[in-house]
Amino acid sequence: MTAQTEAIAVRSLSKHYTTRDGRLPALERISFGVSEGDFIAVVGPSGCGKSTLLKILAGLLPPTAGEASLRGTPITGPRRDIGVVFQSPVLFPWRTVLDNVLLPVDVQNLGRARYTAAALELLALVGLDGFDRRYPWELSGGMQQRVALTRALIHDPAMLLMDEPFGALDAMTREHMNLELQRIWLERKKTVLFITHSIPEAVFLADRVLVMSPRPGRILEDLRVEFPRPRSLDVMSTPGFGEAVQHLRAQFRARGKLDA
Amino acid sequence: MKSARNRLLTVVFFVASIVTWEAAVRLLEIPPFVLPAPSKVAMALWRGLASGLYLKHLYHTLLETLLGFLLGSALGFTLGTAVALNRYVEYFLYPYIVMFQSLPKIALAPLIVVWFGLGLSSKVVNAALVAFFPLLVNTMVGLRSADEDRVSLMRSLAATERQIFWMLRLPNSLPFVMAGLDVAMIFALIGAIVGEFVGANAGLGMLIQSMNFTMDVSGQFSVLLVLSFLGLALNRSIQLVRRRVLFWDPSEKAEAAHEVEEAAEAETPLASDPRVKKEVRAW
After folding, report:
1. Residue among A17, A5, A44, A25 nearest A249 (CA)
2. Higher model confidence: residue B282 or residue A182?
3. Among A82, A217, B48, B207, which is least packed by CB within 10 angstroms?
4. Is the dihedral of CA B149, B155, A219, A16 positive or negative?
5. How many angstroms separate the CA atoms of B194 and A114, rounded?
6. Where are any strands of DSSP class E within chain B?
7. Domain total for chain A?
């Protein structure tokens, strides 16, 4: 497969931060490719540069060396064909749920009239119909994160970048959100790059799991996960799932860092 | 908790302190030019209000305060925005701002009367001068306090700096700006009164000054009462605006949640109302 047909192409990407104590390498010559429509999970311990990688792909941070391109064009800054979901919902409290979802439409001057119906439809898809006139502070954490997901989808981006989106949720809500995300992904078929520090979450959701090492971040393992879709939570208790999780965990244990 | 019993206690306490004051003045025979009895103050207040004298002077003070408030806060907001958005403006103006801020602006009042005369304009300038700084500082801080994640979100959407200002920084600064307006309103009143003390031909401050010359202490007390009601009314009007503008701010919701919790205690069916849940959570 060539770079032109790949949704995400990353080649020897490095990022060094300059601190008072000198240069701090966050990412060290990372390379990988993602095909259109794939669900990729990136796992790694805290401080392995996962978020740095996402920020580079979102165009929020320039790399120190190497290159990254999305759908064949090199990343030079933020772009409009991606949707980003952050660790916290990052909603604006002065906007209603609907207005929060329409934020990308407002910023990109796409015309509210054309997108309001789509926004209501998406809110229904994530199970929030009837909440469009509520304010973010009237919703629970899980609901707020669903609004954030809807906002990332509203301008119909080809790609979703998600930075530990469910990390702040309790275990029950988190499992539920994983199922929801899979359902939405199966329905909308976007390329997803999903960052998490939970190995089971990564194995449950993804077609491929990339394992990153602690600082400086390198890719240790690129594991294909072949469970049939749609996956139910029961898949987590199958031997194959356990093996995959064990295998990935061993990667960290080998380096004396266990964070899952 | 805020039951009829508590309200009754408040009234009882108020009446008791007035009665004690009245009794103390009469029994200890305190001369009226040192501390007038509450009854004397009430009579002075009645005379002043009935003759229309207080209203005439109240009108002047109110006008000076409001004009000074508008002028000062508009300038403070504009300059605060300029400083927050532009590094050069900050670099060149900030030293002057810091210097001016540490100066007690009230000390300029005599100079301002010399420059602007005994009429309305000198009081407006004086009020504006003291109302200016709370707005300046709060606008600067507010515009710069936008959450890093929210800025990242806006940038990831390829928003321009102008869009980030209008859609994020400005609404985000409103809690600070409203707090600034709150202070600026009372500061403007102080500025106007001090301006009147220094030299004026009308206003409640001038009235206090002239009553002082005639040793009319109960008159002064009655004017002070009028002034505190004026201050209260001005503060309330800002609070009213604040509640409308900042309905989403945690500080506002905290108050609302308090009321709702009381209601929820009173009758359980309210607890099933989604509004209650949200506000209790916000608390």
Report:
1. A44
2. A182
3. B48
4. negative
5. 58
6. none
7. 2
DSSP E strand boundaries for B147-272: none
Using one digit for the tens of pLDDT, what is the confidence trace for A136-194?
Answer: 999 998 899 999 999 999 988 889 999 999 988 888 888 888 998 999 899 888 999 99
Domain chopping of chain B, boundaries: 43-246, 249-283
Q: What ipTM was assigned to the predicted interfaces of this complex? A: 0.86
Return the SS3 of B157: coil
Q: Which of B153, B157, B281 sits opposite A86 (nearest CB)?
A: B153
Contacts of A82 in chain B (CB under 8 A): 156
Q: Which residue out of B147, B148, B152, B157 would a mutagenesis test of the A interface target, given it has the greatest number of A Cβ atoms within 10 Å?
A: B157
Contact A217, A43 (CB under 8 A): no
What average pLDDT does the segment B34-45 reach? 93
| Distance (Å) from the alpha carbon of B161 to chain A's nearest alpha carbon | 11
Rounded to 5 degrees, φ, ψ at A158 are: -75, -15
CA nearest neighbour of B122 among B135, B134, B131, B109: B109
CB within 8 A of B158, min separation 6: which ones? A59, A77, A78, A79, A80, A107, A108
Contacts of A103 in chain B (CB under 8 A): 157, 167
Give the phi and the psi of residue B149 in degrees, each rounded to 5.
-60, -40
Helix (H), strand (E) counts: chain B: 13, 0
The verdict on a CB contact (< 8 Å) between A139 and B149 is: no
In whole angstroms, what is the distance from residue A17 CA to residue A11 CA? Answer: 19
- Select the CATH number that applies to the domain covering B43-246 from these four: 3.30.450.20, 1.20.1630.10, 1.10.3720.10, 3.30.360.10: 1.10.3720.10
Instruction: Say if A102 falls within a structural domain.
Output: yes
User: What is the predicted pLDDT for the residue at B191?
Assistant: 95
Q: Report pTM.
A: 0.81
Does any CB of chain B come closer than 8 Å to the CB of residue A77? yes
Residue ranges making up the domain that contains A31: 3-81+158-253
Q: Which residues of B touch A106 (CB under 8 A)?
A: 167
